[in-house]
């Protein structure tokens, strides 16, 4: 068994979400990831939600950092900086998500680290990129959603701009960074050269919204907000209320519309020339939708979901997190992994890499590190002993 990134050493100077999410993907592919944290509090994500039952290992921290090794280093001291230089010299990849210029000011920018390790892959994740008129602007996910135009696409025509209900740009930026790192490692195999990677949350959001931006670039027309309707704008691609819960249906094609009508016992609609094709159904949506809506209201949501999918009409009950996490779809799949969390005294489920493979699939059942848990072992591995080691351990003391 050979994981894709087995033998690759990653130096993780990231915090909060996009960076740790990126390096978690590298863990799942077999990389050894050393997470550098500041003494005292460490990564602020450790306390996400401020729930005392989790101490300094919040569920989000656990999920994004399981399988890594934590080293507490004070980079403002001479010995702390020397330790980081030795770690850079031993690394294949360095990932950071500070604001542009912060690490360079401390002597650990791209040029400085390249001088230490010429074939290093140096990945920076930031709000607006390393070279941009906006480079010095701070950013969070909801700021990026506003800046990128993503909020302007959510909801219906009469709604105010609405952000997505979870930090999708942070997550997607992390995935993009992981993809960039794997591509850079492949390039290094072929050329022997390192590479600087510049991942911007704003740029990543443009890629995420490509289906909207491509059409706008070609036509100059801002796409309308469609609310819960399908992006095809078909009259029968929408969210409908059943007896108990809403259901989303995607009857776009003539064949799907025919199957929907037969299932709902609305065959008479198939004889109506107004609904003979997709354009007609859209033009006369105001008369079509109420009839379909009334018929759907007679069903229970899960029964209708099963029935529609059996006749090849895409449909899904609008579930909450409790409903989808418990879905039997995940039985026998590796979407989730169970890991032990020593500080909690119990286990929890975390997300895996999001894809399967017939061999060497993403996998890591290692626990999350406590703050500074691996400091002494890692420092010894890069040559620190005696008084220097004790001084570094004192500087990186964990409260």
Describe the structure.
With 399 residues, the protein is an alpha/beta fold. The protein folds into two domains: 265 residues, Rossmann fold (3-Layer(aba) Sandwich); 77 residues, formyl-coa transferase, domain 3 (2-Layer Sandwich), CATH 3.30.1540. Helices cover 38% and strands 14% of the residues. It has 16 helices and eleven strands. The strands form three sheets. Strands 3-2-1-4-5-6 form a six-stranded parallel sheet, sandwiched between helices. A hairpin with a 4-residue loop joins strand 7 and strand 8. The chain is elongated, with a radius of gyration of 26 Å. The mean pLDDT is 96.
CATH topology of the largest domain: Rossmann fold
Tally of separate domains: 2
Report low-confidence residues grouped into runs of 5 or more: none
Query: Can you give the helix content as a percent range?
Result: 25-40%
Instruction: Count the beta strands.
Output: 11
Largest sheet report: 6 strands, parallel
State the helix count: 16
Strand arrangement across the biggest beta sheet: 3-2-1-4-5-6
In CATH, the homologous superfamily of the largest domain goes by the name Crotonobetainyl-coa:carnitine coa-transferase, domain 1
**Any idea what the shape is?**
elongated
Sketch the topology as an H/E string, one letter per element.
Answer: EHEHEHEHHEHHEHHEEHHHHEHEEHH
Question: What fraction of the residues are assigned to beta strands by DSSP?
Answer: 5-15%
Radius of gyration: 26 Å
Spatial separation of the terminal alpha carbons: 40 Å
At CATH's second level, what is the architecture of the largest domain?
Answer: 3-Layer(aba) Sandwich
Specify the CATH class of the largest domain: Alpha Beta
Global mean pLDDT = 96
Category from helices, strands and their pairing: alpha/beta
Keywords: Transferase
Pfam families: CoA_transf_3
InterPro entries: CoA-transferase_III_domain, CoA-Trfase_fam_III, CoA-Trfase_III_dom3_sf, CoA-Trfase_III_dom_1_sf
GO molecular function, one term: CoA-transferase activity
């Amino acid at each position: 068994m050979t994981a894709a990134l087995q033998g690759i050493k990653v130096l993780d100077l990231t915090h909060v979400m996009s960076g740790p999410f990126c390096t978690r993907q590298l863990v799942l592919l077999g990389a050894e990831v050393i997470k550098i944290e500041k003494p005292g509090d460490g990564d602020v994500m450790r306390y996400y939600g401020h729930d005392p039952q989790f101490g300094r290992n919040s569920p989000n921290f656990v999920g994004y950092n399981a399988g890594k090794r934590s080293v507490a280093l004070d980079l403002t001291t001479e010995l702390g900086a020397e330790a980081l230089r030795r770690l850079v010299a031993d690394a294949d990849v360095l990932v950071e998500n500070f604001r542009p210029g912060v690490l360079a000011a401390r002597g650990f920018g791209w040029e400085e680290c390249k001088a230490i390790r010429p074939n290093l892959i140096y990945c920076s994740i930031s709000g607006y990129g390393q070279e941009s008129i906006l480079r010095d602007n701070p950013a969070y996910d909801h700021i990026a959603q506003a800046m990128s135009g993503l909020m302007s696409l959510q909801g219906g025509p009469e709604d105010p701009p609405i952000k997505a209900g979870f930090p999708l740009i942070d997550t997607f930026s992390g995935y993009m960074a992981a993809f960039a790192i794997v591509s850079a490692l492949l390039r290094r195999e072929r050329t022997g050269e390192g590479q600087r990677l510049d991942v911007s949350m704003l740029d990543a959001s443009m890629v995420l919204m490509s289906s909207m931006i491509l059409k706008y670039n070609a036509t100059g027309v801002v796409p309308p907000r469609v609310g819960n309707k399908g992006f095809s704008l078909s009259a029968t691609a929408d969210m409908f209320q059943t007896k108990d819960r809403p259901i989303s249906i995607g009857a776009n094609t003539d064949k799907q519309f025919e199957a929907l009508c037969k299932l709902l016992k609305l065959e008479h609609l198939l004889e109506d020339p107004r609904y003979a094709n997709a354009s007609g159904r859209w033009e006369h949506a105001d008369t079509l939708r109420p009839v379909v809506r009334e018929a759907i209201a007679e069903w229970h949501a899960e029964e209708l979901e099963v029935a529609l999918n059996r006749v090849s009409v895409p449909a899904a009950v609008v579930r909450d997190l409790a409903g989808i996490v418990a879905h039997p779809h995940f039985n026998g799949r590796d979407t989730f992994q169970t890991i032990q969390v020593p500080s909690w005294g119990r286990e929890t489920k975390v997300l895996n890499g999001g894809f399967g493979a017939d061999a060497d699939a993403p996998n890591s059942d290692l626990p999350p590190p406590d703050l500074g848990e691996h400091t002494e072992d890692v420092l010894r591995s890069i040559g620190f002993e005696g008084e220097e080691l004790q001084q570094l351990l004192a500087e990186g003391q964990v409260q």
